[in-house]
Amino acid sequence: MLEIKDAVRTFQRPGAKSVDKPLDGASMSIGDAEIVALMGNSGEGKSTIARLLCGTLRADSGTAHFGGAALFVGGSYNRSAGAAITLIPQQPYAAFDPRQKLCNAVAEPLLCRKIVKTRDEAIRRTAELFRMVSLDTAFLTRLPSQVSGGQAQRAAIARALGVGPRLLIADEATSMLDPASQDTVISLLKSLVRTHGISVLLISHDPELVKSAANRVYTLSGGKIYQIEKGELQ
C-alpha cells in the first residue's frame, strides 16, 4: 500500500552553518490492513516521516507511493492521494476547540469535504462514527473538557475515520493517556484494521506497546530506517 524510498530531509538551524538531517535515505513500507510501528529516540525524525506523509513538510528528495499513486516525488506532494492519510493527534484535547461540542468538531470535516450534503446527515454520520469507536452518543453534546483523555482520543479517531482514510498515522497517540486508556485505543486500532482493512503507522517509543500492537517494527537511527524483529525490543 505504502512504500517510501530514499527519503531525505534536512533542516537549517537558525544562526548555524551546519544542517540537521533527520532523514538521510530512509525507506520503509506498509501493507494493506497492517499495523507497522516506527520507533527511535527523540529527535531522530519519526515525526518528520509523519509530516512528509501528510504533506505538511516537503522532502528534499526521495519518493513515496501510496495505493499505486505517487504520494511525493522530491518536493512535490499529491494532495489527492494524501487525502486518504489521516493523523491521530498526540494531545487529543489540543486537537479540539474547547468551546465546540464534539459532535460539531467531528461533523465539520464531513461538510467541508462534501462527504455529506446537509448538517442533519453530518450529525447522523457523526453518531455512527462515535459508535464505531465505542463512544456513547451521549458524548455528542459534550465539550472536550467534559470527557476523559481516552474518550477525547477516541473522538479524535472518529473524526479521522469520517474522511474515509486508508492509512491512520498514530504519532505517539497514546503517550498522553493512562494505561487503561492506552489499551482501549490500541484495541480500537486493531479492530479497525480487522474490520475495515485500514492500515496504521504507529509511531511510538514504548517497546511493550509496540510488541502488543504491531505486525512489523522499524527503527529510525542516523537518518536510516531499519526493520527489526519484535524480540529485539527491550
Please tell me about this protein's structure.
The protein is α/β, with parallel strands linked by helices. It is built from seven helices and eleven strands. The strands form two sheets. The protein has a six-stranded mixed sheet, with helices on both faces. A five-stranded antiparallel sheet has the order 2-1-4-5-6. Helix 3 crosses helix 4, helix 3 (102-112) packs parallel to helix 5 and helix 4 crosses helix 5 (149-161). The radius of gyration is 18 Å and the shape is globular. The model has no long low-confidence stretch (mean pLDDT 92).
Features of this protein?
234 residues, globular, 11 strands, 2 domains, single chain, 5-stranded antiparallel β-sheet, alpha/beta, Rossmann fold
Distance between the termini: 29 Å
Q: Record the strand order, biggest sheet.
A: 7-8-9-3-10-11
How many individual helices?
Answer: 7
Portion of residues within helices:
25-40%
Q: What fold name stands as the CATH topology of the largest domain?
A: Rossmann fold
Computed over alpha carbons, the radius of gyration is 18 Å
> Main beta sheet: strand number and arrangement?
6 strands, mixed
Return the CATH class of the largest domain. Alpha Beta
Return the structural class: alpha/beta
Give me the CATH superfamily of the largest domain: P-loop containing nucleotide triphosphate hydrolases
Low-confidence stretches: none
Tell me the number of structural domains: 2
Work out the number of β strands: 11
Q: Write the H/E string, N to C.
A: EEEHEEEHEHHHEHEHEE
Molecular shape: globular
- Beta content: 25-35%
CATH architecture identity of the largest domain: 3-Layer(aba) Sandwich
What is the assembly state of the chains in this entry? single chain
What is the average of the pLDDT values?
A: 92
